[in-house]
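Quick one:
INPUT:
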């Protein structure tokens, strides 16, 4: 399943557009990477906040998908991001861990780092599974 899951994630249209690469994905944790390109930056030369929000959302989503059974669907129902430092270039890495799992709701928290292992952003995403 792990190989199929990684292929599913890599082939996702949005993930491809964003340049998100799954490094590690399990039902309990995930690590994603983006090698930053010019389209990831806003007018003032720092990584756009939407890039951080996207990788945080996707990291939790990957954990959720890793545990879903055939026929289930999922979607984000809440996302919170705290931006701590600007992203200036190189790669960003999101490390997610599962915080809570209910009957239909999963919560995960994520830390986003740069190449120097500086913490750039933190976030929490909540997913509904049906």
């Amino acid at each position: 399943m792990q190989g199929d899951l990684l292929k599913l994630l890599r082939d996702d249209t949005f993930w491809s557009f964003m340049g998100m690469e799954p490094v590690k994905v399990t039902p309990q944790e995930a690590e994603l990477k983006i090698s930053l390109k010019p389209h990831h930056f806003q007018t003032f030369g720092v990584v756009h906040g939407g890039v951080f929000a996207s990788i945080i959302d996707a990291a939790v989503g990957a954990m959720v998908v890793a545990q879903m059974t055939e026929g289930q669907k999922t979607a984000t129902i809440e996302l919170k991001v705290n931006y701590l430092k600007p992203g200036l270039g190189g790669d960003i890495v999101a490390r997610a861990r599962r915080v809570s799992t209910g009957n239909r709701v999963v919560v995960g928290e994520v830390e986003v780092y740069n190449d120097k292992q500086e913490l750039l952003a933190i976030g929490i995403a909540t997913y509904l599974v049906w």
